Amino acid sequence: MFAIVKTGGKQYRVEPGLKLRVEKLEAEPGSQVELPVLLLSGEKTVVGAPFVEGAKVVAEVLAHGKGRKITISRFKAKVQYRRKKGHRQPYTEILIKEIQG
Q1: Whole-model pTM?
Q2: Which of the four, 33, 59, 79, 98, has the lowest number of CB atoms within 10 Å?
Q3: Predicted confidence (pLDDT) at residue 41 exceeds the cutoff of 80
């Protein structure tokens, strides 16, 4: 059994026991979060419009962190224009406990 959930503007395919890094959630490590279900698959497939009624995915927040560094460079020829900037995207690591629905 698997489900497609939406969080942080992205969609993820999840199964019970799966560890996943998603966009940062405002939840403390060790707490439970519920994610809305877009599609539920098992013996039969149920597609939501936009969400499946009565279905939810329960996940436990494991940790918060920052992703690897990304370097952004800008350059214009002949005018001595150079800019360098770095970015580390924050994330939340979650563990999928169960799929209800």
Answers
A1: 0.81
A2: 79
A3: yes
